[in-house]
Amino acid sequence: MKKILLSIAAIAFAVMTATAQEVTTIENDSIDDIEMSVQLKDLEVVTQRQLIKTEIDRVSYDVQADAESKTRTAMDMLRKVPLVTVDGEENIRVKGGTSYRIYKNGHPDPSISQNPKEVLKAIPASMIKRIEVITEPGAKYDAEGVTAILNIVMKDASGMSGATGTVSAGIDNYGNPNANAYVTAQHGKLVTSLNYGFMHRNRHANKQKQDIMQVYGATGDTLRTLGGGEGSVNVHYGNLEASYEADSLNLVTASVGGFYYNYAADGDGRTSMTAADGTPLYNYRQNTHTSGNHYYNVNGRLDYQHRTHRKDEVITASYMISSTMNKTGMDMTYSDGWNSPMPYSMTHQKGDERFWEHTWQLDWTRPLALGHKLETGLKYIHRSNSSHTTMQYAGDEIDFPGVDSRFKHLTQVGAAYVSYTYNHGPWTARGGLRYELSRLRASYPDGSQSSFHRTLSDWVPSASVNYQFDFARSLKFAFSTSINRPGISYLNPAVIEQPTSIHYGNDHLSSARNYSTSLTYMQIGPRFTFNVAPTFSWSDNEITAVRWNEDGKDVDTYRNTLTRRYVGLNAFFQWQVTGTTSMMFNGDFGHNYFHSAELNLTNKGRWSSFFYTQITQQLPWKLRLTGNVGKWGGATENLYSHNGHGWFYGFSLQRSFLKEDRLTINLSAQKPFSPEFDSYTNFTTQGDYTGRERYEWPMRSFSISISYRFGSLNARVKKTDKTIENNDVVGGSQASGAQGGAQQQRTN
Fold first, then answer.
1. Which pTM value belongs to this model?
2. Which helix (H) or strand (E) holds 110?
């Protein structure tokens, strides 16, 4: 007979203290059948649910594990995701930069990508399962223009703990409403989900003031514009998804989604030019009326996935279609002028951009042996853009020539990739190579220029290595290459002339190649989790805006002339201070270097810093109090300028009610003890002119939101392991998404 002392230990995210009332040990000749009776009293568990997970190619944030997800938005959650920072103007940066794309459920979502600020504020966090930062996309993605992918994985019904849907609504002190609904249903092997959301911002909330000053180096003249404006915005978005699993080996998924955005604004201001000695040269008043601005996007996707009888071998065939239409209109009236620099008193500008994209893709994943995996695939993209730009001028004395420009652009891309992953013990390594053959063709239906075409050939390598020290600690090194192709707004050659400025695109832009290396250390503990990631990236032919002064007017366009270097450090930590108090920090610190040999310009020397920190306190009566503070700005953004910095802070109080906490109410305040208007300043330090741009907009706000979960269905819309991702375009309408962090058009 053996006397056995059984000791149980586990690596877990909990610290437990207990007083044993009675422990019965077992005497048995065999340990195969052990019965144990343990009775404990005074059991205390102090822990935090882990929100962060790291893999060889990504870091993910578990949104559903965050209690604030019940009433917050996707934009709020992004502030907490490692390697992601959101500034005071809600511009998003990933790994310290803007060279990224936004996906939903593993594939590009044009609805989000084209207007990330508006849509991410309209998507409730309660609909999101997790947010992934794909830090090393690999050969499957790399040639298509990204150093990172921000992937928003929506929640399925199985993640709802039996719920069939949620409805949420909110309103702020400006009277701006928002509402959304998410519903899932199952009929046999067919599972569908439907979501719809709406957001409105009225004119009072969208007020803006501006003060712009430019000093010209050649003459010493100073141009000054003072003004302001206000506008209203409506956002509608929706998505329908379905999956049909015929058997354990075959799965078909489909989705169709859309996004609609309209915008109207009015503004006024006064512009004046003075000589170096202070003598007035001219001045005038301008009134702006913007109406009929509409943006539509409709996109659909169909995937067929077949699993073979070999474990983890998957073949996926995919098709994606996307179409966008962007219509803009703006009237400018000039009055009360003295020595006015323009021979007209009114302009009427209209723009119409249309985009179609068809993509076919075939992917094959096959394990070769234990610890070895091969991925390969083929892809074809047919992308067509067209634009029609008109500019009409009216005046009492002179009939100024107008603009009527039509432009078409076709891009065809054929690609093949292969990726190999090796896993042995604590080591995981992945290497990949992608080849792309691209054909670009431009034509001018108005006959203004001759058609042209260009063929590009690119090889794109990538590699990453991860070492897992133990369960909690890992270190990863990665190298990647990516390509950016110009979109139609960068290519459109239409010349738009205003009283003090001229703008046009460059139809001879070529693709740009970017490189990036990073080293990431992650440690996950029961009370303290942190991530540190130094990064270095560079490019020698990047597309950039260039500007100069010609005949008294500021001229800007785009060229492949930029040499860029970036070095930065991103840090994240999550700390369970006590059983009822937690804290998190997320931020980055970096330095940009820009140089153009063609323009003989260099911009360097400024370090930027972005951070967001939050403290959460559990209170009696199931109340949850949260406070946050953040800093943003100071970065060197381009060849000519750097931006200022700003601070923001806020508080929220949340409580859940009813059975299973189905009803949640949240009260929040942003900058409650500050003036109503916040400010942002951009400084121009070199070029044909120097100066500053200062903008002010309402930042202080108070809001209430309510969310309710209903139903008990346990089903989920399944998704294929592979699908289509297009993300190579910068500038203009594209299914693959606009460059992340792009600034929204300001109200003037």
1. 0.75
2. helix 110-113
